[in-house]
Amino acid sequence: MVVRKYEDELEYLEKINDHCWRIKKGFQPGMNVEGRFYVNKPLEDLMLDELKNSCRPGQVGGFLPGVKQIANVAALPGIVGYSIGLPDIHSGYGFAIGNMAAFDVDDPKSIVSPGGVGFDINCGVRLLRTNLTEKDVQPVKEKLAQSLFDHIPVGVGSKGIIPMNAKDLEEALEMGMDWSLREGYIWAEDKEHCEEYGRMLNADPSIVSQRAKKRGLPQLGTLGAGNHYAEIQIVDEIFDKAAASKMGIEQIGQVCIMIHSGSRGFGHQVATDALVQMEKAMKRDDIETNDRQLACARINSKEGQDYLNAMAAAANFAWVNRSSMTFLTRQAFAKQFETTPDDLDMHVIYDVSHNIAKVEQHMVDGRPKTLLVHRKGSTRAFPPHHPLTPVDYQLTGQPVLIGGTMGTCSYVLTGTEKGMTETFGSTCHGAGRALSRAKSRRNIEYTEVLAKLQEAGISIRVASPKLVMEEAPESYKNVTDVVDTCHAAGISKKAIKLRPIAVIKG
């Protein structure tokens, strides 16, 4: 493998405007389409520094910068439009995290790649509103944080407290949030404010391995570890009053709860199992990629369909998981305030997926096409009047939930028409890492992080001190830079800013 000089790499990059760069064909071998990535000046500097570091002697075989991963995805068979990097992009397995790409379902060469979804299938965010204000919560903040920590199982080995046997799991994998509704863990209207209404209909539990089911069975209703969290948040700023009002957000100081989690060990095993099968399919069908982590199969092959059906089951698992934690969150709040969740107006504003592949209709070169859209570390952001935008949000666009890092703000955006034409209705998903987990542990002292959180008035409950270092705000890009880039580029629109007052982590 030859490492080009940084100056030679730059020849393939062109700045289109203040918020978008073009990656020309030829940057990586076999590119079928060009690449695009969205950045503002600070994020641009991070992207180019990452590229420069990869060009230094001794970096061969090391990490692959986001720009090269975008270009490698652009070389996959059947891709249409562009391989797109959102502003929170950083190096990942196969696809960069924050990289989305769409493939023509009608092209027999088109592929599906687990690396374009990620190991934590349907990792996503759910936002609940309340009719409480900061004044109501501040006096009991510590008790409320502890109550949430006590109600929601957290950490790597955590086990769920929602009763679940093997038959229940099979039904949950097939039914998604319909199972949660039947069992009494959610309100009927929760589904209306969830991507796919909380259920992918092509889910087939029968093709999921017993190992995946064994890993998943004890973990339903658990937060997990890593960057997953439950946060009590305060409405800090309202940018779009009409959109906020449709979401039930009427005033600064209103209390919300954000839950960020995914499919736990179940989704990880589904992805792992699929990668083994896809490597065999690649040999059989003579599929070549620039990176072996981009293992894939033809969409219409048995391996491709098996993966999509198993992935859908994992997506349903994740929705049931977030629904179970919604139930536990409502219980914790109702207990603290000695009332009912209904009296506290604890409705779901929305639930979005960050790691998923879905069949959608989009315009390509002026013609409607059926596409398999891979969003990895990327959020669907459909505009007003789109048939898949919920009825309540038809005039405002789909809510987009952008979780910040531990101790920093989060945002609610809405989808736009420009996003539909430029990014297949996709936008950012969060801050995006700036430091690896290993670097964070080496460079950051957890007692300093805890002291800063305390100084900022943020209560924290965490199962592992090591995790505090890995998830420190310094480990991530500035979420405001990320969101402002998407807003300025017009691919999504700012609606609400939220700040945390209590954080629950694994």
Could you describe the 3D structure shown?
There is one protein chain. The chain is 35% helix and 24% strand. The chain contains 17 helices and 19 strands. The longest helix is centred in the middle third of the chain and has 36 residues, at 302-337. The protein has 506 residues and is an alpha+beta fold. Helix 6 crosses helix 12 and helix 9 runs antiparallel to helix 11. 57% of the residues are buried. The chain has helices at residues 6-10, 41-54, 66-73, 134-137, 141-151, 166-175, 177-182, 188-192, 210-216, 241-246, 264-285, 302-337, 417-423, 437-443, 446-455, 465-470, 479-489; strands spanning 13-17, 20-23, 35-38, 79-90, 97-104, 111-112, 124-133, 229-238, 254-261, 297-298, 348-353, 355-364, 367-376, 379-380, 399-402, 410-415, 426-427, 459-462, 492-505.
Spell out the key features of this protein:
single chain; 506 residues; alpha+beta; eight-stranded mixed beta sheet; seven-stranded mixed beta sheet; 17 helices; 24% strand; globular
Detail the topology: elements first, then pairings.
Blueprint (H helix, E strand, L loop, with lengths): L5 H5 L2 E5 L2 E4 L11 E4 L2 H14 L11 H8 L5 E12 L6 E8 L6 E2 L11 E10 H4 L3 H11 L14 H10 L1 H6 L5 H5 L17 H7 L12 E10 L2 H6 L7 E8 L2 H22 L11 E2 L3 H36 L10 E6 L1 E10 L2 E10 L2 E2 L18 E4 L7 E6 L1 H7 L2 E2 L9 H7 L2 H10 L3 E4 L2 H6 L8 H11 L2 E14 L1
Parallel strand pairs: 3-4, 18-19
Antiparallel strand pairs: 1-2, 2-3, 4-5, 5-13, 6-10, 7-9, 7-11, 8-9, 8-19, 12-13, 14-17, 15-16, 16-19
